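Changelog entry: the Cell division protein record was regenerated in this release. Current contents:
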Amino acid sequence: MKIKTDITLRVYVAYAVLFVFAFAIVFRIWQVQFVQGAKWSKMADSLSTKFVNVEAVRGSIYSEDGSLIATSMPEYEVRMDVNADPITDDLFKEKVDSLSLRLSLLFKDRSKDEYNRALKMARSEGQRYFLVQRKVDFNQLKTLKSFPIFNMGRYKGGLIVLQKNKRILPFKLLASRTIGYYVEKQKPVGLEGAYNEYIAGKTGKRLMQRIAGGVWMPVNDDVEIAPVDGSDIISTLNVNIQDVAQNALQKQLIAQNASSGTVILMEVATGEIRAIANLQRVAPQQYEEKYNVAVGSATEPGSTFKLASFLVALEDNKFSLDDTIDVSKGYCVYRNRIMKDSHLIKDKRVTMKNVFEQSSNVGTSLAITRAYKNNPEKFVEGLERLGLGHRMGIQIPGEARPMFKHPGDKGWSGTTLPWLSIGYEQTITPLQTLTLYNAVANNGTMVAPKFVKEIKYLGKTIEKFDTKVLVERIASESTIQKAHELLEAVVQNGSGKVLNTSVFPIAGKTGTAQIADGKLGYRVKRYQASFCGYFPANNPKYSMIVVINEPTNQLYYGGAVAAPVFKEVADKVYATQLEIHPGVEKQYVLNVREVPLAKAGYRTETEFIYNKLNVSYSENTKGNWVQTAQHDNSVEVNEKNVSEKAVPNVVGMGLKDAIYILENAGLRTVARGCGKVVGQSMTAGTPIVKGRTIGLELR
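Regenerated structure tokens:
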């Protein structure tokens, strides 16, 4: 009886365990199906299909004269669905040899046999996304589409094309750091970085499917959400002036075996930067743009800062230009620290004007120290009144913070004021120094440096940048006039006499600063030579600064090293700018014809106008597009060949007809001027790249 009970109990226990196990399975199935169903369904979908971003075509960057200085070129990745259904075994065997040969001849990276084996292996393995070639340009893609099998199209021939965009700089190194770049999770650089929000456009979406081998391929030929192309940036740079500035700087850097150099050219009234070159030595006699020193590097400026010291003291009536001071010793001592002049001034006493034009450290420091020794804070406040001591908030990132000490700051001592007055114990960038000199040239109004004029989308202005005034007036009119007098005297009689040979007057100041070398301080002799000024001095149009670091071929003074670069750039700019030549005005010659010639355009519209005006004309074509020419006392209407398969020739047309033709061909247009088209940025007859921008010049 006991045995029977034990057996029955064991059966019940077994049934109970099985029941609990079965219940747990059913409960889990119910939970997965109904409670967590949405989650697992979404995960399954994500493992087989997903959306990926499709980058938009970045907007282009133009110079102020309409030249293209940064743009995006399409680049393609070509793949093949080797096992597409329309590609039968017979078709593949028949065409694979000729396809392999054509691929080998086009790309020249593998032999015909290597392509043949790769294609056959891909087909035998069932590949649906075989990589044919990366970095294929438009012309290669166009040729490739005519190859056997591929000429059957996307679905029948298995051709899969993915477009990517490659950023190019048509002028290579010209202003490359100012143009800059944008890389995610890195600090933005230049115009590309600062205006990425506009240039980048909006990304699209493409549905991708995972296939065998974990490879993702597009589900459809077209993207599901099309990207929106970026806007174009119109910069203030001038390509021709930039080229002149960069070449002049590089030539002098090589001649002086210097470590680096900077040139900035600014338009006085607007603050627009016409050229900005930054070159660093990368190998003997070889220089490249590695860092935007003009914007991002703040150093002790040396004697170019004496202008600020004189402006403050003159504005505070601490001395006049005719006051005299004794500099005959050539040195002075402040708290056991000796300050020297670079050259001995023979006269025992000289005027403050002579002190400035001869760039006397002794005279400047003595005058400022005597004037402000009891109230140095007033001198520092005067510097801040000039707009110094803080960032200007320019349009590109990376502006360094300038610095000078205040009384009471750590490090302020009895030697700070005299050394501050001659450009030491402080830091400032070349662009910030230039902005001060530009304010003097601009009769006291300090404007911010400007790098971008406007932003355009599809040729339409969406944002325009006006000149930004930083300080309405840095000093009184009388002080500014005295500053003009001082800066002109430097070139006429002082340390900048090398510039006095130009056919137009130049005003400016030389600078020679000894560069501190870390813990070694000034014991190692390293120098920075500079010249900052403006031209023509009697009616300033441009201001400019030249800075050359660590010249090693014996010369290191600003007048000998930096001033020649200033002169070369200024001379070439002056020679090409008719509006700054006194007494020279542009002359226009009226071309008188006996019969009116119409712009090239649509034939029926041209005929309509001549019929309405009762102008006699002879017609030599029935084509849609025509151009006119004079024949005796009548008009000759001839055919104008407008290609549909290449970039059309629209020279001679009105803007309306030109835009109609070009945009029907898939090009974007940007026009400048008015009248008829006299030039186009793309050569007629070259292959059309859909979405590219073509510039038109009208006169």
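Confidence is low (pLDDT under 50) at residues 588-592.
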